[in-house]
Each structure stands twice: as C-alpha cells, then as structure tokens.
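quick one before i forget lol
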Amino acid sequence: MKRRALLSALTATAAASAAAPSHKLKLDGKDTDIVKWPTSPGWLDYIEHSFAMAYYLGPPEERDKRPHGKGQPEQISETPILRSESAGALDIAALIARARQRTRVSDKQLASLAEALLDSDVEAPVKDCYEPRHIVICYGEMGDVCGVIEICLSCVSFRIYPGGRMIRSEWYDIIKAARILHELGLPLNDENETIEDYVKRMEEKINKK
C-alpha cells in the first residue's frame, strides 16, 4: 500500500511539473531532475507518522568515545546521526549523548519544513562540510522510526529518510528551514547566532550566487 501511494505521488508530481523549470538535485554527484523526487505532501503521506521530535545536537565530546569494532581503540564518533538513508538506521547512542535540546514538532511545522526542503524554487548557497546539528525524527504509534530529516544549516545540505540518498540541492529554502527551527526554540548553531543575523548572512550569500 505504501509503495503504491509513493508511486502515485511521484506520478502526480511528474505530471504537475511537466511544464515547470527542471531544477536539478545532486544525487551521488549526478544531476537528477527534481520531478523524480517526491513532493512534501507525497513524502508526508508515505511516512504515516504519529508524532515528530526535533533535536539540536552538540559536537561530539571526549566523553562520547566508544569502541569502533572488536579490538579497536575507543574514539569519538563524528558520523551523522542518520547512518543510512536507505534503511533509516540511526546512531541512537550518539543521539542520546549529543542531544542538547529537543522539542515536539507539530504537523503544520513538519509540513512547512518538508516543503522548504522538497518543494522550493529558491537557490541556496551550498558548500562542502556536512556537520548536521539538527535532526527531526518522525515516530510511529509504537515509537518506531518512520521518517527522518537531518539538516546542516552551515553547508545548506540535508538528508531525508525514506529517500535513499543524501541531497545536495541548490533548490532548498534554507532561510525558511532556519526560521522553522528557530520557531521550535532550537539554537541555529553553537555560536547562538540570532535568526536575524543568520538570515542576513544567508541572504548575502544567496545574492552573490
């Protein structure tokens, strides 16, 4: 049923976007038409979540050291919390250790965030780094993970599950996403930058493109 719903959403997206500009997504370093990616309503229908939580993550610390394989020395895990976009695997130990703040996300806020990521025609100043400090986890009735959005506000990239791949999109409304995270009461970064300063900084970068 879920596969059929997602295919229907993708078909509807392609039909509706036939006359629209063909924005490109960077998937594994290759350009892919945005019409092949689900719209935010299609993604939200597909995950069938019961509730969602947003987390602000601190940087890995010395106390977060742990073994990385049998017989291996303990080290700090600097990998993203979302370990596999295709399987939705989360590093729960890292999430518990690094979560500095968490808050409930309303359905309206989740829909707005997904829209900023998947439906935007705003060009974003993408750069290389990917050190995500924000993650939104959608849970089912029994607490199972059915959807994840992981965002790096610094390099303007995100990963989404279900979705299967990291997206480095040049069409992503970073300012709208930041405003939603600010509305949720989460810090934007470790420097406690204000939303006004962040928006100004991003607008300057966008205008330079």
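fyi The chain has one domain: 2-6+30-208.
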